[in-house]
Amino acid sequence: MEILVRQISDSELAELRVSAWPLWTKEVSVFEWFYDATEECYLIHGLVEVTTSKGKMVVIKAGDFVTFPQGLACTWKVIEPVKKHYRFG
Predict the structure, then answer these.
(1) What's the predicted TM-score (pTM) here?
(2) Does residue 66 sit in helix, strand or coil?
(3) What is the CATH number of the domain that holds 43?
(4) Which of 17, 40, 43, 50 is the residue whose CA sits 20 to 30 A from 26?
(5) Cross-strand pairs, 63
């Protein structure tokens, strides 16, 4: 299970209608998370280190488009407060 982080163009953001997706915010913190479903998200603000249960760490920053696979267990370390658009499924 890999976390996929990529840059996405403004036209791709518009085509996916990312701005219509729900918003999620989180203060500086550390917490464990399990993905019951695949999540796609676009970080508007923030900086996060996500470490999988297998020890792989991924840095996510503002402007990144991220796919978290269903079944992923991980720990989020929010270094700078996060604001993101997201969708499941």
Answers:
(1) 0.93
(2) strand
(3) 2.60.120.10
(4) 17
(5) none
